[in-house]
Amino acid sequence: MHADPQITYSKPPVETKVKAMTLASYLAGVAGMAVLQAVSSDPSMISFLPDWMEAITLPLLPTALAAVAGFKARHTPRPDLPPDQR
């Protein structure tokens, strides 16, 4: 009875998808803050929306952009993993 050889893995890099989603959500958040600054001085910019929709519209922008960025970004390959775990 031989013991299985110890498998060692390299430290996994941060996935490209995670980097893209993080950057997109940050930039969308900054853009959202700029919109808030503009809207605070001129509330007529979003007055056409119902009150409940005004509250949920701004957080949807970073969420949607992060989802699109994560979907479009390529998967980071891990050649150090066995073929059945890639």
Descriptive notes:
With 86 residues, this protein is mainly α. It has a domain at 16-73. Helices cover 56% and strands 0% of the residues. The protein is built from two helices and no strands. The chain has helices spanning 16-41, 51-72. Helix 1 (16-41) runs antiparallel to helix 2. The longest helix has 26 residues, at 16-41. The protein is rod-shaped and about 70 Å long.
Question: Layout of helices and strands, plus pairs?
Answer:
Layout (H helix, E strand, L loop, with lengths): L15 H26 L9 H22 L14
Helix pairs in contact: 1-2
Low-pLDDT residue intervals, each spanning 5 or more residues: none
Helix proportion: 55-70%
Radius of gyration: 22 Å
The coarse silhouette is rod-shaped
Task: Note the main sheet.
Answer: none
The overall strand count is 0
Summary tags:
86 residues, mainly alpha, 2 helices, rod-shaped
Give a brief outline of the structure.
The protein has 86 residues and is mainly α. It has a domain at 16-73. The protein is built from 2 helices and no strands.
